[in-house]
Amino acid sequence: MNVGSEVYCNGMCGALNTFVSGENVTTYMCTPRAVCRQLELYDEWKRLPLDREVRALCCDNFNYCNVRDP
């Protein structure tokens, strides 16, 4: 199931990916630049430091840059 809409983003395009009840789930959002900078998330999927099951991405180099396969 895919649900979403285009929104204005005053930060960086972001995404989170993990498994919920055995299903691969990816969420897309506008992420504050401070969060992206603190977690060193720049244009590539990375595992979050304290949670190896969650991967995250921040980018701002083209429209919809966060809508990609993890």
UniProtKB/TrEMBL annotation:
Pfam families: ET. It comes from the Eukaryota. This is Activin types I and II receptor domain-containing protein. It comes from Cylicostephanus goldi. InterPro entries: ET_repeat.
